[in-house]
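Hi all, long-time lurker, first post. I run a small reading group and we've been trying to get comfortable going from sequence to structure in the token notation. Rather than ask abstract questions, I figured I'd post a concrete chain and ask someone more experienced to write out its structure so we can walk through it together at our next meeting. Sequence below, copied exactly:
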Amino acid sequence: MQGRPLHSSIFVFTEKATVVSYCPKRNKNVLVMSTMHTEASLSTREDMKPQMILDYNSTKGGADNLDKVTATYSCQRKTARWSLVIFYNTVDVSAYNAYVLWTEINQQ
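-- Answer (accepted) --
Happy to help. Here is the structure in token form:
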């Protein structure tokens, strides 16, 4: 990160995934991995953001909303057993998915 030009991107490709390292500020680094993107495309904006980051930012609302709702309405309890933590999270996500489906089916 030291000495990297501002708004520079470094791409790494494998058969199944692409990783980009983007430098938005001095001495800061943003890493994004994608299995959907297969080429090094940059935006034409002034900050030259990679298309992977723009796609992520435009679709991240679903995960943020899930985290917000499951934090407010959760069945989780304090436990030291990791299997119960996974079970509680599965119940929370399943309940939210059922709510989303129900609201789509019963639109007014």
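A couple of things your group might point at:
The radius of gyration is 19 Å.
The chain has a mean pLDDT of 89.
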